[in-house]
């Protein structure tokens, strides 16, 4: 059994590495793609999916490897995580994400403190975020029940695919959304547009929780 401090630190470090990967790979991809946006997106997608597999494999046994407030909310509502733990998880995720953004800027010798000018708004974007988060959370819950050892691979592959099928490029994570509002690079989102993304992500996560309750049979311990 891991201590609370170990679990909180894991959520902080994992989310920091996730955002350093998302933002850093976006910067590198844009630098090398010679203006071809599809190549930039591909160069952003593959490292993100790969890093998720690594981080969840490494840290899943310690904290559950949420790295995502929407996922933490779902586990709180499922009564698998207490109120205090949930609140600190979210704080660590947001703080870790911001550190990851700053670290990416430092690695590429960019201005450390930035805000994004990338406009991402409108019904299509919000719908994309809701659907992307719904699919992510449902994939996690279903895989945890039937193939627990495959969660890391499933999440990495899902996000890799969702970067391309979702018009929003699948942020699917409030901590990621907040951190990406503080980078004026390929991965950024205009800060005033972030709250609608986060609202859509929360709705998507709650819908996935509801659908999972219908799809997943109760275990013997849950029937007692």
Reading the helices and strands in chain order gives HHHHHHHHH
Number of domains: 1
CATH domain class name = Mainly Alpha
Number of helices: 9
The count of strands amounts to 0
* Weakly predicted, low-confidence segments: none
Mean pLDDT, to the nearest integer, reads 96
Helix content: over 70%
Radius of gyration: 17 Å
Taken from the alpha-carbon principal axes, the silhouette is globular
CATH architecture: Up-down Bundle
Main structural class = mainly alpha
> Strand fraction band?
under 5%
Major sheet size, sense and barrel closure: none
What's the end-to-end separation, in Å? Answer: 25 Å
CATH superfamily (homologous) name: Glycerol uptake facilitator protein
Summarize the model shown:
The protein is an all-alpha fold. The protein has helices spanning 4-32, 37-63, 69-77, 83-107, 123-146, 151-165, 174-180, 194-215, 220-223. The protein has one domain (4-215): Glycerol uptake facilitator protein (Up-down Bundle), CATH 1.20.1080.10.
